Amino acid sequence: MKPGVRLILLVMLAFPAGPIAGRAQGDRKDERSAWEHSIVTLEVARKQYDYYQPWSKGTRRLQKAGLVAGEREVLTTADEMFERTLVRLQKGGRGRWWIGEVKWIDYHANLALVTTPDADFWSDLKPATLGSAAPAQGAMQVLRWREGNLENRRAEFTQFSVREGQLSPINQAVLEVSSEIQGAGWGEPVVVNSHVAGLVTAQDGRNAYAMPASFIQAVLEARRRGTYHGLGYFHFYWQPAKNPATLALLGLRGEPRGVIVTHVPDRPDERERVLKPKDILLSIDGFDLDIQGDYTDPEFGHLNLESLATRRKWAGEDMKLQVWRDGKLMEASYRLPKFEYTNALVPYAVRDQEPEYLIVGGLVFQPLTDSYLQSWGADWKRSAPFRLYHYNNEEPTKERPALVLLSHVLPDAYNIGYQDQKYLVLHKVNGQSVSRLPELRDALQKPLDGFHVLEFVHGDSLHRMVLAAGDAEREATARVLQQYGIDRAFRFATPAGK
Amino acid sequence: MTNAHVVNWARQIIVRRYQDPRPYLAEVEYVGHDCDLAVLKVEDGRFFQNLEPLEFGELPKVRSTVVTYGYPAGGEEISYTRGVVSRIELETYSYIGNRHFLCAQTDAAINPGNSGGPVIQDDRVVGVAFQGMPGLENTGFFIPPPVIEHFLKDIEDTHYDGIPQAGVRLAQLQNPAYRKLLKLPEDAQGARVDGLLPIPSTEKVLQEEDVILQVGSLAVASDAKVLYQGNRVSAALAFQLAQAGESIPLQVWRDGRRQEVSLPVFPYNGDHAAGYQHGSLPRYFVYGGLVFTPLSLDYLRTQGRGPTDSPAGELYYELYYRRYESPKTARAEPIVLAAVLADAVNANVSVRGQALVDQINGKRIEKLEDVVRAFETNTNAYEVIEFLPNHVIECLDRGDTAKANADILRTYGIGKDRRL
């Protein structure tokens, strides 16, 4: 573009900017008062478990933002809504609290709808409008009630990206904004003009990460239609196809494009695996993939292909794939598997379920979950025992769908000699493979000649343990429960644990 | 005598006599990298004029007083520090990193510069100062006489073999139920074999669930310890007192009765990559700018990352766990792509290092020689390298790569494409 042409364009743009800016002053006041009727405060009280001593629990209480989003519906994120004991709602940032009920919640999508039957609460509230498309640029604000006032912090658009969800490892499109707001990440709405562009789910310094409104709208709409069955995801691994030699090896002619499928694990729903290693994935649902693994999203621009699994498609729905395989172009239909925490060998989280455990003569057995590993604190990925954390990199199999570990030993005369043992993953008990606590309980019903023989995964730690079965075991368990002040010897999550 | 770590990789060694201004050149005559000891040779006969060799004493008693001699933090004058022997047990010898030998702890200050200096008691040498422990004050460690004497006896045949490893992992046997299952008497004797390293000479003689009652002249207690010169120490010591190739008489409880067996023991090299490797340069092969090297602790240390930093976690697992947990899938010498020396021929390779190699040109890579063979015997148009754990593949044009090799080596000043 010539310099003169650029100058003219700038002048043309500058003229209308004045009046608009002038109007904005007044509008902001109106907008602010409008938002006061659409943003509410939620207070959540919940149980907080100590996974190191899974029989004990504390409580936690926190406040987060809610958005009036429909007929008697407050929309918020699902974060910290698990293990809840009480949800309360407040409007106007002060005064009376109303008891809330969670109408619907989806932890993987990190969304919840809360209501209250009390008509008073809804009297002067009105639903906010979720933006149909997230803004690419423009003045945005992050809002929340704080000490009786509606806090309004300016936010600047940074980028759209793809990140793991706050409550699941599913990659989703994210609206990133820069803002001076502090301590955000609890469902604060990001607003632009008169609509909501997203809900803040996390913050790191000045960077706030928001779930785009279009994703929220799509989930809520599918829910209303009854077609939402949870989030799906791509259950395969791929690599960028930046190396032309690799594409040539795989026989793809023409411009470099697509990504290379490297590994396709067994699906959790046991359906046939559609893709094979060394397939070149060229497009998903009509979106062409470039050699970095990006597609052009009509709303967000260039995004990583992983976000396509949550772009208006849900678990159980089919996506059309275009694949280059063995020198030929082929079309395939890929059914999105439903994401469940238990799809992984080490479940990503345990929600709304008290921690499972089984105590046998002072030996404390627990399922290995990330919730357990998080008891090592905020830096748990580094501070938890390396071997236990590394199980996150292994896939579940039919023979080993989950792991049970001897987490520690409550010392008693019965278990003398083993009192220092901990973090040992069970392999077999009395000759039977053990992957879950009910299996352990069943195996303990069948001692070998009056003994329990416990075998742990071969490693650099103890491999085998033998304990007395029968009366000695039962008496020791009772004694340990009494001495350590524990109510019951086990807690199982499944009906099998009745 | 000094520590191996004092003279490791030395290009010139100078020894000095007390109050003698002349420097004397020395060279390493024997070195034990496992036990961190070395013997130096001084050719100039004047060095030894009027010098009297010190004699070695017994293992000092805990709570007895010792004096360490050395040059902490450099300095020109010798320094003496007095302390007591705080405890004696098996400790990790940090110079090699994955060996535990008898070690004496003292509260006499041992600092950098003390290494290799004698620890004296009653005018006799009762140790060689060698390591400290960061974070612990007034704590130093010295190599005690049994380890020194083992080293000196080992080199009597002019070759150092090393301290034998039986490859037996012993577990305490203190739970009455386990003892009852094994029909063992209710005394405090015997430790259970909980695991064996893949050492054929050991696997022939011992098996898991054997109970070791006695090793040589030392009775093994149920806490998997032996009483050695008044100190309760790990029973592993009892296997380390023998010289390489010697057989140790063992009393073993098996099938409900006491049996006598003889266990030949040898130094074990199967886990050398898991410890620091000294005295030999790292193996590598460079092809098309891709640098392949065996996975080792030395390699991981150069990366400066912890085990939980991805992708280092996969490498830590491969180095420290796989051979125990799934020996059938373990490789003799896992190979990593350590680095990519940038060149037009590899410009499109996305994997830039810290990646475990699975296959090259369809051949499973068990050791570095397999890498060389896989490239040198390939006749296809492309070189195909597959990495673990997610089977990422990278390709190079074979013709272009072959042409580029010499230039890459020249550009990066690498004399040879391999050190095998």
The gross shape of chain A turns out to be flat
Strand content of chain A: 35-45%
Cα(first) to Cα(last) distance of chain B is 32 Å
Number of domains of chain B: 3
Q: Largest interface, and how many residues on either side?
A: A-B, 41 and 43 residues
Number of helices of chain A: 9
Named CATH topology of the largest domain in chain B? Thrombin, subunit H
Q: Beta-sheet strand percentage of chain B?
A: 25-35%
What helical percentage do the residues of chain A reach?
10-25%
- Give the termini distance of chain A in whole angstroms: 75 Å
Total E-strand runs of chain A: 28
Provide a count of the helices of chain B: 10
Average predicted confidence as pLDDT of chain A: 90
User: In angstroms, what is the radius of gyration of chain A?
Assistant: 27 Å
Mean pLDDT of chain B, rounded to whole units? 94
Helix proportion range of chain B = 10-25%
Basic shape of chain B: globular
What is the oligomer described by this structure? heterodimer
Low-confidence stretches of chain A: 1-27
Helix-strand makeup class of chain B: alpha+beta
The name of the CATH architecture of one domain in chain A is Alpha-Beta Barrel
Overall description:
The complex is a heterodimer of chains A (498) and B (420). Chain A has nine helices and 28 strands. Helix content of chain A is 18%, strand content 36%. The termini of chain A are far apart. Among the domains of chain A are: 39-122, Beta Barrel (Thrombin, subunit H), CATH 2.40.10.10; 237-300 and 314-335, Roll (Pdz3 Domain); 342-497, N-terminal domain of MutM-like DNA repair proteins (Alpha-Beta Barrel). Chain A is of the alpha+beta class and 498 residues long. Chain B has 420 residues and is of the alpha+beta class. The model of chain B has no long low-confidence stretch (mean pLDDT 94). Classes of the chains: A alpha+beta (498), B alpha+beta (420). Chain A binds chain B through residues 237, 239-240, 242-246, 248-249, 260, 262-263, 277-278, 381-382, 386-387, 389-390, 393, 415-418, 449, 451, 453, 457-460, 462-468, 472, and chain B through 171-178, 180-181, 192, 194-195, 208-209, 222, 306-309, 313-314, 316-317, 320-321, 324-325, 348-350, 381-382, 384, 389-397.
